[in-house]
Every structure is written in C-alpha cells, then in structure tokens.
Amino acid sequence: MRGPHNIWRLVRTGATLERTGAMRVVLDAFEAPRPLRLAARILGWPFKVLGHDGDAAMPPVTRALSALGPAYIKFGQILSTRPDLVGDDLAGQLRVLQDKLPPFTVEEAKASISYELERPADEIFEYFSPPVAAASIAQVHKARDAETGETVAVKVLRPGVERAFRKDIDAFYLAARVIEYLSPSSRRLRPIDVIRHFEGVVMGELDLRLEAASASQYASNTKDDDGFQVPEVKWGLSGKRMMTLDWAEGIQMGDNAALDAAGIDRVELSERVLQLFLKHALRDGFFHADMHQGNLKVAANGDIIAIDFGIMGHIDEYTRRVYAEILYGFIRRDYQRVAEVHFEAGYVPPDRDKDEFARALRAVGEPIFGMDATRISMARLLAYLFEVTERFGMETRTELILLQRTMVVVEGVARSLNPRMNIWRAAQPVVEDYIRGSIGPKAVLHDLQETVKVLSRFGPRLPNLVEDMLILHSQTKDRASGTNYGAQWWLGPIWAAAGAIVGIALSAAIAGAF
Fold this sequence. Notes:
Elements: H1 5-19, H2 22-29, H3 34-44, H4 60-68, H5 70-80, H6 83-86, H7 88-94, H8 106-117, H9 121-124, E1 125-134, E2 138-145, E3 151-157, H10 161-182, H11 191-205, H12 208-222, E4 228-229, E5 242-246, E6 251-252, H13 256-261, H14 266-284, E7 286-288, E8 296-298, E9 304-306, E10 312-314, H15 317-332, H16 335-344, H17 354-369, H18 378-391, H19 401-417, H20 423-438, H21 441-456, H22 462-477, H23 485-513
Parallel strand pairs: 4-9
Antiparallel strand pairs: 1-2, 2-3, 3-5, 6-8, 7-10, 8-9
Pfam family, one: ABC1
Family: Belongs to the protein kinase superfamily. ADCK protein kinase family.
Transmembrane segments: 489-513
C-alpha cells in the first residue's frame, strides 16, 4: 500500500494542520529546522481548503489529530507523555486524547461482541453500560456477566480501525523518508525504524487476544508485588476484537483530592509507582509501557491497579543490565563508568574519545544533582543526554524507545502525586538490588550455569559429531599433505567435543549446588 496515494494523504495532513491552526504550534514545539518548515508550508497552505475542520471547541493540535484519524491520535497520545519535547502546554492539550474521545454506539459494540463470541451480547451480559472510556483504538464498557454475576470491563475495538491504521501508517513511512531527505541530521534518529517500531506496537494493539495474553503474563510476573494488582482476564469472554477482564474499582490516579479524602499517602504512593515500574522493567524485562494516570487506579486498600495492556515493553537481559548500570552510574555520579558502559555496549562508536564522553556526561549529570528536589527530572536528563548523543554520533536505540518514554511518563505520574519527589533517591534501592542480583558474583555463577546447560545439550550428539569430524579429517588429509594443517584442523573440534563432555559434568555439579 506504500504507493503514490500516500502523497495525497500527507497533503491532506498538512492541509488539516494548517486549517486548524495546528501547523505553527507543532513546528514551534519541535523547534523545526527551516527546510521542514518550508516543506510543511508547501504541503499545507496552498491546499488549506482540502483539510478537515475538526471540532472547533478543541485546541488546535488536538482538533487536527482527532480529525485526521486513529493513527494520528495515537501519535498525539505518545506526545502527550513528552512535555520535555513539546512543552507543558501542548502536552496538557494532548492529554485529552488518552481516554476522552468521541465514542461509537453501544449497538455497534454489542454487534462486534455477538460476532466475536457467536452469541447475542444480551445473552452474555445482563447489564451493559454506555462507554466509560473511549480512546483511539477501542472503548471500554462496564458490564455484568449473566452466568457468574461478576462485574467486568469489556474492551471493544472501534469499527474499521484496522484499515484506518494501515492506511495512515503507510503515509507515516513516506513522511519519515521525506524528513530524512530534508534533514540529513535526523537520520541518526532512524525515523523509519521508529515508524516500524510504532507499527509493530499498534498492530499488536489491534488483536485483543495479544493484549489479553500480555495482561495474563503481567499478572503472573507481579502476583507477589506488594501494593500492586492486575485484573484477571476472562478468556471465555475474549477474542480478537473484544476482551473481558475483572472490573477494577478504585480512584483515578490523577484525582489528588479524592486520594486525600480517602486517606491515601500520596508521598508513599509516588515512590511506589516509580519503584514498581523499575522493578518490572529490570527484574522481569516486561513492563506496562503506557502508565499514564488514565491507566492507573488506587484501590480502597491503597493498592495500585494497572489497566489497559495494549502497549507493553520488553527488553532482554543484556539490555536490562546495560540500562541498570547506566542508571546506577548516574546515581553514584560515576561518569567514567557510565561512559565505559556506553562503549562496551556499542552505543557510542569506538573511534570516539571515552574520556571526553565521560566529561560530557558529567556536564549532563552534575547540574541535575545540584538542583532542588522539585527540579530533578528524568525528562531533563534524557533531554541533555540527547544533546550529548548527537555530538558523539550515537544512533537511536529503538529497543529502548518504550523504556525511556515510559520512564518519563511514570516520572510525571509520580510528580503529580508529590511535586517534591526526588526520583533518584526513590530509584536507588531498586537499581541497587538489581545490580547485586544481576551483575555481582551470584550473577556470574548463574551465567556460567546457563552457558554450561547450553553446552550440555550437545552431549547426545557427541559420538556422531566426533565421527563426522574424523571422516572429514580423512577426506582432507591428502590436501593437507606435507603440512600440519590436517592435525591442526581437527584438534579444535575434538577439544570442543571434550569441552561439551566436561560441560555436562559441570552442569550437574552446579545444578546440585543451587
């Protein structure tokens, strides 16, 4: 679908931004370079009459994105979590896109449920409310299961949303290529890879069976975490286009007045929400990647309840260790070690000067640690790091996009509860605990055990491997005549086979020790 028709889609986008007055706001917020401003004017102003009007009651950018469709709304939701990039005013305007969009009808929702579960919705649910939340991809209804009498939350995809997203994402790819062409310096940010990553996330959200699986895994990972809950998935009442979970009763995380009235300690709550996020990211490598206030509730007993599992983040063990060491280095103000970690992980090109990079990191960190607690910000740190990485030629790490974005969102949630929160002090115990378990001597023994286990799997194949190597040695002996090549060639594999045998023994010994 990535054909010439996408040019028309971009023209329509520019025209809508221009018509609603959003173009200037967006360009100013991103401090766009002159070539991009010129291109935007070319795409927008002459075709202004072709743009959508949108809802005149909304602020310009929110009005434009709502008129352009679900993929644009989703981008707006992401930008609403990044006041460090777009400013507080624009981020606040975009926050309305999180869960306050115009809903589709109850009749359409019931029709989708009936089709998905192959039974009339009125037989499945004895009560089915109007929408309680409506976002770009789906909306949520409160219902009561006719069989069990339990109160549940039913999430239903918007009609036609899959086709609309595919069409818009195709246009985004074209836009990314135009940006790379007009602004060569943007290529290190890998805009096409960012769009590809966005596409993968969104396509996952369009299959609610995957979201149900994410919710189930998340609940399993966090079942022993004090002060945290995940609603149970009702698999028998879930499918591709709808999903049912236990109803989460609680106060919205952003309602400070209600939290105070309920006697909830907001200072403790602010630290817990940050620490839980870090624990899930570092310990499990699987975290809720859309933790804004709309997706968090507080139960009567003070537990944090997470909802909406459409965007979940995953990072592998190696990346988690790198991220933890970087955070730990900043917490300890050990900028030389932070620099070394960047080079060891390949995040900085090897031809750059490590000591110079460490000094640049010190220039990032020291001003932040010298600030009052109300001004110590992860968002500010990431913004400064962005400047440093540009100077040292680092590319965007697409696997860390969700992690970094969510860290900023969670910081915002925590600060809304306690403006004087020191995020570094709150993060330190979680990061230190992970470092002790994953980078210390115990971690080395665990890594050795896992390596030996892999080697031991070759045990049953060793006789055939040795026989094959001896046959190959015999076949190449004549070609290696007059040299020691033949003997040298097969000694290596034989030693490898012997190593695997030793590995089996070591695996048994280590397994017994643990």
